[in-house]
Amino acid sequence: MKLPLDFYIKNNVVKIAKDLLGKVLYTNLDGVITGGLIVETEAYSWKEKGCHAYNNRKTNRNAIMFERGGYSYVYLCYGMHYLFNVVTNVEGVADAVLVRALEPLSGEQEMLLRRGKISNKLHLTSGPGKLSKALGIDRTLNGKSLLDNEIWIEDIGRKIAPKNVVIGPRIGIDYAGEDALLPWRFSIRGNPWVSK
DNA sequence: GCAATGATTTACT
DNA sequence: GTAAATCATTGCC
């Protein structure tokens, strides 16, 4: 039930971001499998200032975004947090979806171990930096294919009704000016794991 | 070569 | 509510 390449190479990154809600992100590191339901995403495109590849600016860091869809883009933010993105669209077009929050499904014990002692279980994966740590995602996973067996996304047949999808502006990109207001953030209504 | 800074989290006041 | 932690990447010198 792994998502096929077709899913990633579509040219509508906003639609893909919405479709990723209810899918499941897995990692398999050193034989340990952890995974969680995607409950919050954001779309990024080279056409707007919030994106690292704005105006087709290609650097060593974001080069993977210019590849065909279906790759992971992992990078370090604020010196201490890894953020996980899904590269979409065809080669040469830099679009990506940031996964902002998960609901833990499998390997919960391992996630707790990686995150250390935390006050509230709800803080386990309710944010982009947190979910990366819980799943063991770091820069060594940058550029991995999501069709491979280290990190991938599955469709477990869960459908999210349109009325249960919350749409709003993206978070933490005030510097992007008017583009920060684009309604490109999607989350599952009422899910306690969605970041605040 | 070097200084500025961010798609965040956490712990304080 | 505000601020500190912390470093790879970036863009300019």
Pick out its properties.
3-methyladenine DNA Glycosylase, Chain A, 8 strands, DNA-binding, alpha+beta
Query: Could you report the average pLDDT, rounded to the nearest whole number?
Result: 95
Q: Report how far the terminal alpha carbons are from each other.
A: 30 Å
As residue ranges, the low-confidence spans are none
- Helix-strand topology string: HHEEEEEHHEEE
Shape: globular
CATH topology: 3-methyladenine DNA Glycosylase, Chain A
- Major β-sheet, in short? 8 strands, antiparallel
Q: Counting H and I runs of at least 4 residues, what is the number of helices?
A: 4
> Any idea what the CATH architecture is?
Roll
Can you tell me about this structure?
The protein has 196 residues and is of the alpha+beta class. It has one domain: Methylpurine-DNA glycosylase (MPG) (3-methyladenine DNA Glycosylase, Chain A). The protein is 14% helix and 30% strand. Strands 1, 2, 3, 4, 5, 6, 7 and 8 form an eight-stranded antiparallel beta sheet that branches. Strand 3 and strand 4 (81-88) form a beta hairpin. Helix 3 crosses helix 4. It is globular and about 40 Å long. The model has no long low-confidence stretch (mean pLDDT 95). The protein binds a DNA duplex (13 and 13 nucleotides) through residues 42, 44, 50-52, 59-61, 75-81, 83, 85, 98, 100, 123, 127-130, 139, 170-173, 175-176.
